[in-house]
Design goal:
The protein has 160 residues and is mainly alpha-helical. It is built from 6 helices and 2 strands. Strands 1-2 form a two-stranded parallel sheet. α5 links the parallel β1 and β2. The longest helix is centred in the C-terminal third of the chain and has 13 residues. The radius of gyration is 19 Å and the shape is globular.
Length: 160
C-alpha cells in the first residue's frame, strides 16, 4: 500500500467522522472505478480542492481490495417490499432527485425529504420515522409531520 501513507496523512482530519476502510470499500468499486483519467482535470478545474483528492483516491483504489460489481449494478432495484427512503434537501452526494428516482421503482415506498439537512444528517425526526417504520413494517400511516419543522442548523460567522 505504498500510496496509502500519503493519502492518510493528507486527509487525516476526516478519520474522526467516518470509517476510511468502509468508505474506500464502497468508493473504489462503485465510484472511482468509473472515473476516466482524462476526465479528472476537466471536471475538477476551478474547484476548491482541484484534482488532488480525486487523484489521491484513485491511487489508493489501485491497491485497495474489492469485489466485482454485478452486471446490473447500475440498474434500478424494483420491489414491492416496504421501503423508507430519506434524502437531505441539501445533500450534494445523493440529492432528493435521486431519492425520487429510487422511490419510482419501489412500489411500496415513502420518500422523506429532510429540509435543511445534508448527507450525514439524521435528526430526531428521521430517527422517529425510522422507528415507526420498523415497528409497523409499513410506510402506510407514518406520521411525517415533523419533516415540516426541519430547518438548516444555525451557524455563527465571526465578525471582523
Amino acid at each position: 500500500f505504498k500510496n496509502f501513507g500519503a493519502f492518510f496523512a493528507q486527509y487525516q482530519s476526516i478519520m474522526k467522522s467516518l470509517s476510511l476502510g468502509m468508505n474506500l470499500s464502497v468508493m473504489c468499486p462503485e465510484d472511482a472505478a468509473f472515473i476516466r483519467r482524462g476526465e479528472i482535470e476537466r471536471e475538477t478545474r476551478g474547484t476548491f480542492l482541484g484534482d488532488r483528492l480525486v487523484r489521491s483516491v484513485m491511487r489508493v483504489c489501485q491497491e485497495w481490495p474489492r469485489g466485482a460489481l454485478a452486471k446490473n449494478y447500475h440498474g434500478p432495484v424494483r420491489s414491492d417490499v416496504p421501503a423508507l427512503i430519506f434524502s437531505g434537501a441539501l445533500d450534494p452526494d445523493a440529492p432528493p432527485s435521486r431519492g425520487m428516482e429510487v422511490a419510482r421503482h419501489l412500489a411500496n415506498s415513502l420518500h422523506a425529504v429532510m429540509e435543511g439537512m445534508s448527507h450525514t444528517s439524521f435528526p430526531a425526526c428521521a430517527q422517529s420515522l425510522a422507528a415507526q417504520f420498523i415497528s409497523s413494517g409499513t410506510v402506510k400511516g407514518l406520521d411525517t409531520s415533523c419533516l415540516k419543522e426541519l430547518r438548516r442548523p444555525a451557524f455563527a460567522v465571526p465578525q471582523r
